[in-house]
Amino acid sequence: MRATIRDVAKAAGVSAATVSRALNRPDLVDPETLERVRKAMEEMSYQPSAIARGLSARRSDTLGLIVPGITDFFFNELYKGIDRASQQYGMKVLLYDSEHSRERAFEGFSILSGYQVSGIIFTSKLVTEDYDPILQRVNIPVVLTLTQSAAKTPLTAFRIDEVRAMFDVVAYLVSRGHRQIAMIAGKLWDDRTGELRLEGYREGLRHFGIEYCEARVEFGQYRFDDGYQAMQRLLERIRDVPFTAVCTASDEMALGAIRCLNDHGYRVPDDISVMGFDDLPIARMVTPRLTTVAQPFHEIGEEAVKWLIRAASQPPSPSEIGDYLLPHRLVERESVRSIS
Amino acid sequence: MRATIRDVAKAAGVSAATVSRALNRPDLVDPETLERVRKAMEEMSYQPSAIARGLSARRSDTLGLIVPGITDFFFNELYKGIDRASQQYGMKVLLYDSEHSRERAFEGFSILSGYQVSGIIFTSKLVTEDYDPILQRVNIPVVLTLTQSAAKTPLTAFRIDEVRAMFDVVAYLVSRGHRQIAMIAGKLWDDRTGELRLEGYREGLRHFGIEYCEARVEFGQYRFDDGYQAMQRLLERIRDVPFTAVCTASDEMALGAIRCLNDHGYRVPDDISVMGFDDLPIARMVTPRLTTVAQPFHEIGEEAVKWLIRAASQPPSPSEIGDYLLPHRLVERESVRSIS
DNA sequence: TTGTAGGCGTTATCAC
DNA sequence: GTGATAACGCCTACAA
């Protein structure tokens, strides 16, 4: 049996209350007593029960994280930031994988709230109005990362300016001499990000006086195979609608696209240039290294945690709630070439 | 304020105990009562407090997972299996990243035990004797994955037969006509896996009557850059100790090695063949696709969870404790070619 | 089958 | 500065 607070109290010749204070408000206890208590804790290798503490104090030093799928490559990067920040505040993280299901996501909120988490980070999926009831019910701070809200409940989100990011991609490609630019966009039923990036693409074209051509756009669900297949469709009509560069909505799709191009005898970037999106660790591990736009995953994770912790101690004012756009960055590597 | 068990009880006109039973032992309660209770729970959208339950029942439907680093590519795959199985048993997962530090790992055990987790999955790092005290102290089942124990406390582990796996790699390369086989082995201060794979390499060579040559072996810490640098060192002496194939201790190092080869004007596999290890998702996304040995990450994760759950309900007999070796599989793709 | 009562390990509010 | 004492929300004998 593990030692409890009472065991420590007895050993130190004080009451449980004092041990508790020694733990949480050491300034309120006599230095000598404190010393005794600490020694006792040390000797019994006392580890306070987070569970009991949570029950009593109605908070649990735990954050909940809801991700759509653990195998999404960006997860590790986002988590890195979350972990770094939460550790700094002595918080633990409870992970919940919604497996791309809305019901599972709802359930995630419920379950996590059952664990008295002091906040929930929700990732990547669009929050629609059907989340409102559950959002209302779990009465704890929620923050969004890599996505945004279309629900009634005001929610703050940390993400990049998707439109602007893809605009920058187009601008970059144009600056490298490309005018015939295809796109492999992202599309998921509960995803607004894909649309935003597409919008950025269109804005970019418009800005540079390039006509938007539907036949140059294909969609995929962000994964490798989707990128491959989308490229295949693009390739089928390359005679009629040629392109010298392709921008994609994810690094993974970019890899798929490149593979498809290779399989059809095209070299990247010599024949066709490809741009990724995300700047995941793999982007620099492949040949050609991916030219891509970097999302500040770590920072987003950190900011989300900080926001949550702030929100837990002091309800945020309406003006503090909203979308926080963090800066993205274009990373030049090898998958795009300049054409005359 | 969230509804408590008492609120539900009142609404259903029963006692809290009955609600509790309705939740945990529905077979013990009258069907009609059960119905009433369930309706009440539904209406109040009652979510039992996992915290309180854990305190009272001294278990928490939570598993702890200690990983050395969240950014290790295999993590997602392992977690996938863990999540799948734990979900099946209604367990949640508390994640702890030890950041490759032994102290943090110790702390992980402590903290997780403070959360009353019903078991801990420890990953990837060698468990040495200095873990014994903490292992003894946290009095909960611990299971190892992708590693093994060198501690006194008997521990069960799920992993593959590393020696055999690397032996198979060598056998495969030999069957493809290779005799001059270099290796980029893994080395970490708290890692035995690297040694085992190296051993498999040596056994393989011996078995096929190939002389082991130290100059053909380099070491790295499993990451991309390590693979790159190791290959660079190998290349520096390729005149004196030539090789036609390289096997590596991780897919990531294989990618680094390939990149290094490319940078030095070698083509893979035309000039030199490269083998990975792990079969991570990226292995099939790069060009050339990696020929590699697949670790059954999902199964390992699942088995670990099942073992933990079994152990929680019934202390395992000494004979059940030990190393469980799951089958690996050689995946043939494009990074190795046959030579005459 | 159901209810009562005590306890799980803390924290928080009082007195002292 | 310290010590009782009452929660916190649930589970589990035990009794009815």
From TrEMBL, chains A, B:
<dbReference type="Pfam" id="PF00356">
    <property type="entry name" value="LacI"/>
</dbReference>
<protein>
    <submittedName>
        <fullName>Transcriptional regulator, LacI family</fullName>
    </submittedName>
</protein>
<keyword id="KW-0804">Transcription</keyword>
<dbReference type="InterPro" id="IPR028082">
    <property type="entry name" value="Peripla_BP_I"/>
</dbReference>
<dbReference type="GO" id="GO:0000976">
    <property type="term" value="F:transcription cis-regulatory region binding"/>
</dbReference>
<dbReference type="InterPro" id="IPR046335">
    <property type="entry name" value="LacI/GalR-like_sensor"/>
</dbReference>
<keyword id="KW-0805">Transcription regulation</keyword>
<dbReference type="InterPro" id="IPR010982">
    <property type="entry name" value="Lambda_DNA-bd_dom_sf"/>
</dbReference>
<keyword id="KW-0238">DNA-binding</keyword>
<feature type="domain" description="HTH lacI-type">
    <location>
        <begin position="3"/>
        <end position="57"/>
    </location>
</feature>
<dbReference type="InterPro" id="IPR000843">
    <property type="entry name" value="HTH_LacI"/>
</dbReference>
<dbReference type="GO" id="GO:0003700">
    <property type="term" value="F:DNA-binding transcription factor activity"/>
</dbReference>
<dbReference type="Pfam" id="PF13377">
    <property type="entry name" value="Peripla_BP_3"/>
</dbReference>
